[in-house]
Amino acid sequence: NDALDFSGVPGLTCRISDCSLLNSPATEPIELASLPFPYETDLSEMSERLLYYESSRGCPFNCTYCLSAIDRDLRFRPLDQTLAHLDRFIEADVKLVKFVDRTFNCNPARARAIWTHLINRRLNQGFRTCFHFELAGDLLEPVDLELLAEAPVGLFQFEIGVQSVKPATLKQIKRACDLPRLYANFKTLRASRRQHLHLDLIAGLPGETLADVIDSFNVLYQLQPDQLQLGFLKLLPGTPILKEIASCGYRYQPFPPYEVLASNTLTAESLSLLHAVEEVLEMFANSQFFSRTLNWLVPQFASPFEFFRALSAQIVDSGKKMQSFSIDQRASMLRQLASDKLEPAARETVAGLLRADHYASGRKDAPRHLDALEATADEEQRKIIALLRRNRLPGSRIRVEAYPFSLASLLSTGEPQGEPEWAIYDLSGASPVLAETLSPDELSYRG
């Protein structure tokens, strides 16, 4: 509309009626203290949703693929204002708050002050709100690790961007990172089991081959994050990496999300394989329904990547399309993969691990597709089950299950070792609770 003059709007870029471009210079960056709390009127109605919160803008780093490389003017909300806002989330019983700060701990002292405040509030007043932060893992200091080791379980989630384990790649994309220190800090966080931990990886970075991406995948998977996120490079408008389109031979989507489709060093077929692996990684590992099974099964293959490659190939070869399979369908696929690739004894171990994961996920039914004892018992076994129902946990509903290893050993060491055991689960609560394990000798005596 030519009657409207937008030239006085600072920072606005638009096309006017004659298709010419109007670009008004931006003013000085807005003081974050002047920005209002983003959920001023409807916070109480949004407690079950994921809410985003911004306590800083800009980034001190200049990774070439990131929009923050354009905005190097790092500024923060005042600490007291930030803490007051976080208290409002807590008082509204919000489930999850995700900080959108590019590198939350780029100012370690400030990050530590926020963590300390939240830890003290949780210890003094129980609340459910969880806070998610994107961190630079190598910037964590010993005092941070000591503090976080004392944080209540479930209070924090940490997402740590690694992107590549190749120093030459990190140098090319101008991503400063002390990889050995990052690994050491991550292992310390992992050992405390206090935070839900994510690691991020990007496929398609300049000069990287499929073998390079696979190396990064294997290194990060073996660090045992709660989630490994395999992402794909986006050539976002305005980012410095656009200068490398010709030299890297990038082909990419000319529309959002501007994802790389191929390069001189990574073919379209290789990226297609990585996308297939990413899908099964999300369905089977990041879903966390099969943690005990995968902890044992993945090392039976040449590498973590080879396991997920084999799993994706099995799904494709079966004629199924990648989709949102049910938990039972996914469990059957893992069992089938074990049957195709492993020796008979290992197949039985996998079936037992899948049964253990089934009950650990909170499900009470006997998984017939995993040869659950109560679905496959012979006459003698049915008699023992009936006796256990009469004599164990009177007044409670129970589930009896058999394992080809010691369930007690699995729960204490993570390894399916020892003599076979039966287990009795108490089903009177919301989820199955392991009440007792019985050895073959005890079963013979009780029978």
Low-confidence stretches: none
Radius of gyration: 26 Å
The span between the termini is 88 Å
**What best-fitting shape do the alpha-carbon axes yield?**
globular
Average pLDDT for all residues: 93
Adjacency order of strands in the biggest sheet: 3-6-7-8-9-10
Summing up helix and strand content along with how strands pair, one would put the structural category as alpha/beta
Biggest β-sheet: count, sense, barrel? 6 strands, parallel
Please bin the fraction of helical residues: 25-40%
Number of helices: 16
Q: Strand content of the residues, in percent?
A: 15-25%
Quaternary organisation of the protein chains:
single chain
**Number of distinct beta strands:** 15
Features:
447 residues, 15% strand, globular, 6-stranded parallel β-sheet, 3-stranded antiparallel β-sheet, alpha/beta
Secondary structure: elements and pairs:
Elements (H helix, E strand, L loop, with lengths): L12 E3 L5 E3 L26 E4 L2 E2 L17 E2 L2 H13 L4 E4 L8 H17 L5 E6 L6 H8 L6 E8 L3 H6 L6 H14 L3 E8 L6 H12 L5 E6 L12 H4 L2 E2 L7 E3 L5 H19 L4 H7 L6 H14 L9 H15 L2 H17 L12 H4 L2 H13 L6 E6 L3 H7 L7 E6 L6 E6 L1 H7 L1
Parallel strand pairs: 3-6, 6-7, 7-8, 8-9, 9-10
Antiparallel strand pairs: 1-2, 4-5, 11-12, 13-14, 14-15
Walk me through what this model shows.
The protein has 447 residues and is of the alpha/beta class. It has 16 helices and 15 strands. It has helices at 79-91, 108-124, 142-149, 167-172, 179-192, 210-221, 245-248, 268-286, 291-297, 304-317, 327-341, 344-360, 373-376, 379-391, 407-413, 440-446, and strands at 13-15, 21-23, 50-53, 56-57, 75-76, 96-99, 130-135, 156-163, 196-203, 227-232, 251-252, 260-262, 398-403, 421-426, 433-438. The protein has a 6-stranded parallel sheet with strand order 3-6-7-8-9-10. A 3-stranded antiparallel sheet has the order 13-14-15, with helices on both faces. Strands 1-2 form a two-stranded antiparallel sheet. Strand 6, helix 2 and strand 7 form a beta-alpha-beta unit. Helix 1 (79-91) packs parallel to helix 2 (108-124) and helix 9 (291-297) runs antiparallel to helix 12. The chain starts with 12 loop residues before the first strand and ends with a helix. The mean pLDDT is 93.
